[in-house]
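Issue 218. Parser rejects a valid record. Input:
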Amino acid sequence: MVGFSKVYDQPPSPKEGFCAIMTCSAADERCPVVFGASERIAIRYDDPKEHGGTALEEQRYDERCRQTAREMLYELVAQRSAASFGFREGPFSLHSRPVL
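Output the parser choked on:
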């Protein structure tokens, strides 16, 4: 698996057949369509940068890191499980999945 951050439409990012994972609320809102993506998954959370320079900064960044990792694992397992049963999309709605 190769990951690309921030700008998806510049080299060496692929032009098609990739999964776009929006990993914050702002990215989800700013990129409603990701051209060339075969899947688009939104893992919405409040960006911890709002706590930058405060006593809560480290704690909030650690919380978002753990949340993102759990939810990415959940989505990847759901997608893999769906594919093994011949479904194109994961078995759970991205909008109704439980918060982990």
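Fixed in the parser; the record now loads. Helices lie at 25-30, 57-84.
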